[in-house]
Amino acid sequence: MTQPFSRVRFIMVQPSHPGNVGSAARAIKTMGFHELCLVAPRLPDTTAQPEALALASGAADVLAQAQVVATLAEALAPVTLAFALTARPRLIGPPACDIRVAAGLAQEHLAGHPQGVVAIVLGTERSGLTNEDIELCQRICHIPANPEYSSLNVAQALQLAAWELRYALATGAALPLLPSTAGHPQAGDEPASNEKVQAFLTHWEQALVDVGFLDPRHPKKLVPRMRHLFSRNALSNDEVDMLRGLCTAMIKTAAHKP
């Protein structure tokens, strides 16, 4: 885990459904974070509930380490930049931005302040964050959604926020964004040499003649078009060998036909 990822916490205010807490833990871990904080959950032992454990699905460590506190102020005590995630427009309160902008601001804050801590704050499943909750945060952020139905499940909203934060932090730290295989490329996967490709094309032309598809007396533009087709596809060694086998089978079949 890179250092900026360890300075991000996700705060759920008064969560009432253990399943959402478990799903949140999973969402946090899949994006490379680990810190979950619960403010006054409806069930004091929410993280130990069977539904939470089931939906955490491999993120039981995040669930077990989740901090449970009595107030949002306590949860925000070490935080230097907090984003209140809400679906509703707020006429009064901190400046608003969308979640992608918020992720960019978080990345800049963490990069510029080695001791900085960023938090994403999410409200209750039923009513979201109160105005008093939002007053404790530095920014409001929204997830762009269907304006006619913008209410997301709290765990889904957390997943989207965690994804945006991961993308911003990974890009800022030049971390890979695509999965890579641990193995080494096989020789057959390497690009075929021009000599090998040209030998195949000669073989291919002979096979087309033998099966009657190509009339050597009137080739027209078939041969150069075929050559261009195969040349632009950067054939690998295995692909050339496969096609050479096809040519051999075509020639043998043509030789045995009545």
TrEMBL record:
One Pfam family cited in the UniProt record for this chain: SpoU_methylase
GO MF term list: RNA binding; tRNA (cytidine(32)-2'-O)-methyltransferase activity; tRNA (cytidine(32)/uridine(32)-2'-O)-methyltransferase activity
GO biological process, one term: tRNA nucleoside ribose methylation
A cellular component annotation (GO) from this entry: cytosol
Entry EC no(s): 2.1.1.200
UniProt enzyme class: transferase
Catalytic activity: cytidine(32) in tRNA + S-adenosyl-L-methionine = 2'-O-methylcytidine(32) in tRNA + S-adenosyl-L-homocysteine + H(+); uridine(32) in tRNA + S-adenosyl-L-methionine = 2'-O-methyluridine(32) in tRNA + S-adenosyl-L-homocysteine + H(+)
InterPro entries linked to this entry: Alpha/beta_knot_MTases, RNA_MeTrfase_TrmJ/LasT, SpoU_MeTrfase, tRNA_m1G_MTases_N
Similarity comment text for this entry: Belongs to the class IV-like SAM-binding methyltransferase superfamily. RNA methyltransferase TrmH family.
Protein known as: tRNA (cytidine/uridine-2'-O-)-methyltransferase TrmJ
Gene: trmJ
